[in-house]
């Protein structure tokens, strides 16, 4: 099958739109015609110098579309089904069986490497050159993507399919971290550091949960304004002095029960821990830091720091849950989105990096 894809050939190169060959699906494989694909901060891992992500590669891991074809041994999926593509997992380890697929021991191999597991290329250029297409089990910056039953989630057909892709990773991470991993309840307080797509999804989820103090912290005034519209009860500019002290004051002096960091900035993480009440929990989802330095006395007083992957969600159950909340008007994730044609991917990346756009969604078809 001929496909068009945005190919990254070097960490510091622009994406190029190329026509490639995608082989027919084999056992346990699904071909999805992509209607829309979100651009996530994690896609920038492909721009880290070195060999972490092999090149040339098709990135993109927030795809949505319709099933085009299924290989042998694929239950529950048929051509024409509307689907959202999420992260991949093995399905057989203890963590997967315990409904924690984000903690699958094969998480890195199945999602972050992008190379075919068996060494056999699925996508090739006209000259036979292999193009890596297993980024998060999908590589969906393309007109068609190859997935598996583990990361292809059927959804109802009466919702705007081209906008659903971010539910597969960024929006899922923010919302599920609040509703599942942290377990925020009615009456709780939470401070969210970073009002990008993940942080704003956390703000919306905290409102769904009934949190009474929802504090958003960011450097961009426009994102703070949007956070307030989406449910934040208070907003703080992260450049101000004593953010932890301001959060404790908002929460009555003791601090909030939960904080949530999306930035991976060490100084911000320290603040996220410092603003907690005793027994409070800080959830970390930011990628990129090498180490954090924390006040040991804060932890000795009963506070917890918790790393979270994909919100501890099971995509096949949580993605439909988010869609239903959206249909009820309680989770307006579409307000984060700006769409671009696939051939404007470099502009979309620049707009996201500058903070001008919260969540770019590319429309390959």
UniProtKB/TrEMBL annotation:
Domain of life: Bacteria
Keyword Metal-binding: yes
UniProt keyword annotation of Secreted present: no
SUPFAM superfamilies according to UniProt: GroES-like, NAD(P)-binding Rossmann-fold domains
PROSITE patterns for the chain: ADH_ZINC
Any Pfam family matching the protein: ADH_N
Cofactors named for this entry: Zn(2+)
Keywords assigned by UniProt, alphabetized: Metal-binding, Oxidoreductase, Zinc
SMART domains: PKS_ER
Boundaries of every Enoyl reductase (ER) domain copy: 15-362
Cross-referenced PANTHER family: NAD-DEPENDENT ALCOHOL DEHYDROGENASE, S-NITROSOMYCOTHIOL REDUCTASE MSCR
Family membership noted in the UniProt record: Belongs to the zinc-containing alcohol dehydrogenase family.
Protein name from the UniProt record: NAD(P)-dependent alcohol dehydrogenase
């Amino acid at each position: 099958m001929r496909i068009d894809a945005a190919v990254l050939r070097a960490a510091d190169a622009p994406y190029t739109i190329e026509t490639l060959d995608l082989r027919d699906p084999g056992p346990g494989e699904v071909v999805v015609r992509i209607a829309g694909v979100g651009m996530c901060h994690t896609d920038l891992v492909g721009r880290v110098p070195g060999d972490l992500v092999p090149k040339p590669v098709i990135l993109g891991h927030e795809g949505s579309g319709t099933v085009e074809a299924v290989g042998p041994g694929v239950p529950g999926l048929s051509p024409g089904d509307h689907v959202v593509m999420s992260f991949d997992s093995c399905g057989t380890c203890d963590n997967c069986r315990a409904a924690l697929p984000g903690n699958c021991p094969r998480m890195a191999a199945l999602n972050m490497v992008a190379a075919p597991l068996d060494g056999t290329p699925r996508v090739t250029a006209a000259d036979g050159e292999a193009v890596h297409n297993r980024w998060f089990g999908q590589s969906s910056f393309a007109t068609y993507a190859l997935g598996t039953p583990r990361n292809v989630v059927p959804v109802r057909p009466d919702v705007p399919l081209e906008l659903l892709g971010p539910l597969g990773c960024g929006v899922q991470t923010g919302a599920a971290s609040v509703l599942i991993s942290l377990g925020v309840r009615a009456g709780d307080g939470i401070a969210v550091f970073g009002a990008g797509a993940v942080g704003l999804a956390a703000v919306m989820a905290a409102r769904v949960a009934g949190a009474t103090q929802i504090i958003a912290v960011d450097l961009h005034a426009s994102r703070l304004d949007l956070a307030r519209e989406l449910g934040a009860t208070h907003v703080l500019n992260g450049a101000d002095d004593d953010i932890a002290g301001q959060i404790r004051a908002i929460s009555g002096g003791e601090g909030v029960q939960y904080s949530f960091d999306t930035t991976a900035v060490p100084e911000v993480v320290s603040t996220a821990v410092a603003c907690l009440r005793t027994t409070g929990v800080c959830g970390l989802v930011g990628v990129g830091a090498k180490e954090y330095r924390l006040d040991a006395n804060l932890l000795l007083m009963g506070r917890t720091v918790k790393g979270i992957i994909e919100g501890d969600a099971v995509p096949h159950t949580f993605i439909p849950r988010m869609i239903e909340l959206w249909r009820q008007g309680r989770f307006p994730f579409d307000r984060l989105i700006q769409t671009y044609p696939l051939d404007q991917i470099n502009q979309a990346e620049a707009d996201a990096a500058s903070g001008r756009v919260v969540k770019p969604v590319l429309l390959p078809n």
